[in-house]
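Continuing the series of single-chain predictions for the mutant panel. This is the parent chain; the variants come on the following pages.
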Amino acid sequence: MAIYQNQVDYLEIRLQQSESTAIAYRGSQLDAVNRNFSLAGGIRACQKGGWSFVTFNGLDELNNRVEEAISQAHLVGEETTQLALVEGIIDQVNVELKRDPRGISLQEKRQLIENYNQLLLDFDPRIQTTAVSYTDQFSQTYFVNSLGSCITQERLDVNGRFGAIARGEGNIIRQGFESVASRCDYNVLQGIEDRVQSAAERAIRQLEAKPVKGGQYTVVLDPYLAGVFIHEAFGHLSEADFVYENPRMQELLELGKPMGIEQLTVVDDATIPDLPGSIRYDDEGVQAQRKYLIKDGILTQRLHNLETAGKMKEKPTGNARALSATYPPIVRMTNTAIEAGDHTFEEIIKDIEEGVYAVRMLGGQTNGEMFTFAAAEGYMIRNGEIAEPVSDVTLSGNVFQTLKDIEGIGNDLLYTNGGCGKGGQMPLPVSVGGPHIRIKNVVVGVVN
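Parent structure:
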């Protein structure tokens, strides 16, 4: 690295060695079995504000690829490089393994997933098909940069995903999903029959649901949907590359601005053990942190890489992340959540005469500050009690108004594993979290 020190304003090299397994069933058919070993890397260079990114597949081509990255950065750089100043870090981060999936045969892994798949298929004759998959990946990433960092990080991801699709009268189709993940232990997938079966149970329950009547309701989100809401509708707006390029968002997201009730606190925390979004250092070598995006109802932080922090004159937050070493790091979330409040679920719903309880998420989209989410399950709330199931529960609105309309926050914070997409990099491991939250004046369904 020293020989290139004065040729560009900034230079980094990442090399990743990984081994992975993937098994997938679709219905009764084995859809895929893959074992993969790879060695690849990426080089980023910045000169006069211009960035280049070059990948390589072997160490024998490294010197040529570094020179190529430097040359390309010189071709595009026409302004001033603005990077936040950070100290170089030298460290080695090892995984504290429990049961290592690399020591388990492919046959044993396949048999486990086949058994769970069959459990779903046998649950009820109305289960038409399934989508069940298993993945594990162990990787070692080596990182050096011109700031003096030299970091080695190990990472293990073990994931099981279980989906069931049910068909009812009139060809009504309903879906249910469940997922399990660990950063250290294959045994997280052992003995989870009840969790796997819950995917089929959710799909079957919704076959009896009638479409919700469109209108404005007080809505209660379960912890899963509360986490997805805060990640999708607000978390992406907190990524500083989006804010820096959008003058309107700079105005709407001015630090110090009130965003909701005093009890509302939103965090992005990469330091929680064993969650998919947890890291020790990000992909620019910045130490992971717990950030308060909203604290006590006030907007307090946003998420940065070195460049956005430098341009906006704020501190780096350790949120430069890449899907692998062959992708450039961009500003991404880690584990994003609404912090727990002090209400029980019973207290949250007890004085709602007519409302909607929305559970999990089936799909959705965001467009700037506007959002639309489809809940996987829905139930009416009547006179403070959970009542009949309802279907076609879509929630839409403006995220800033919706945050202000949160009027109750539960004490039952729960994190759920997920995968995030941005800039062609998907699915990046993240976790979303929240407790039950109560929101007034939410538009549900189609209003006539």
